[in-house]
Design a protein that fits this description.
Blueprint (H helix, E strand, L loop, with lengths): L12 H9 L6 H12 L10 H11 L6 H11 L5 H5 L14 H12 L4 H9 L1 H5 L1
Length: 133
């Protein structure tokens, strides 16, 4: 899937459904945030403890992680829900990022960032027990 080619402000409901049907779980708001970061990434490495989590997960799968993937992970992992988000009904196929395990969040970032789908496949195979639930 080529989600990064979409303008983040013009993602329509059909494209969001396509994302969910391809294994995506981020809410629509979080998807827009992730796509915005992935498409506008700068080369400044984040100096946050969360960088070790995504890097360790990628290392355990023998995958390289890009700077934009690290920045996206940090932004989504640190995203605190506002009261409106806590009370809003979301698509039952989606899951708020603050409820995801680290592996689930990395899987979602790989789904968005890797057009070949290889990273998504590898992490899904590596952590099968987590993703079956």
């Amino acid at each position: 899937m080529q989600f990064l080619e979409q303008q983040t402000d013009s993602l329509d409901i059909t494209q969001y459904d396509q994302y969910l049907n391809s294994g995506g779980k981020l809410t629509e708001t979080e998807l827009h945030l992730a796509l915005d970061i992935l498409s506008n990434c700068c080369d400044i490495p984040p100096k946050r403890p969360e960088t070790f989590q995504i890097k360790n997960i990628a290392d355990s799968c023998n995958l390289n992680v890009s700077q934009s993937e690290v920045l996206t992970y940090c932004a989504l992992r640190n995203k605190l829900p506002c009261e409106e988000e806590m009370n809003r009904n979301i698509d039952p196929r989606s899951k708020n990022c603050w409820c995801m395990t680290d592996q689930e969040l990395v899987q979602q970032i790989f789904l968005l960032s890797d057009p070949t789908g290889e990273k998504y496949f590898v992490i899904t195979e590596k952590f099968q027990r987590i993703f079956k639930n």
